[in-house]
Amino acid sequence: MIAQRPPTRLTSRVLTLGSFAAATILGLSLALNVAGQTAAAGLVGNLGVVVLLFTPVAGLIATWSELRIARPAHGWMAVAVLVVLGLATLIALLARP
Q: CA 79 to CA 47: how far, in whole Å?
């Protein structure tokens, strides 16, 4: 007998919306750059990059939320990945000159 798959609708929605939002913001940044608004394009581009980088984090949080009851081991694996991601970010920031 095949086991029931746990629901992952929230995770897929978070990842899809985050990707579309980042692409839209980065497209706006490109349009501003083409229009000669380089300062505004830089700010909007930085926001797009932050949204792009936050999307997997939000996806892991959504995964934990969905799997914490049905499959606790998988839910805690998402938390472990978040911790490793946070540590890697901290090490990268501290290693900067």
A: 25
Using the 8-state DSSP alphabet, how is residue 44 labeled? H
Asked if residues 18 and 51 have their Cβ atoms less than 8 Å apart, the reply is yes
Residue with tokens 């995770």: 11
User: What's the predicted TM-score (pTM) here?
Assistant: 0.80
* Domain range summary for the chain, segments of one domain joined by +: 9-94
d(CA 81, CA 49) in angstroms, rounded, equals 20
Token representation of residue 51: 């949204």
* pLDDT tens figures, 16-61: 999 999 999 999 999 999 999 999 999 999 999 999 999 999 999 9
Residue 48: how many CB atoms within 10 A of its CB? 20
Task: Name, in order, each residue with C-beta under 8 angstroms of 6's C-beta and a sequence gap of 6 or more.
Answer: 66, 67, 70, 71, 74
Secondary structure class of 39 (helix, strand, coil): helix
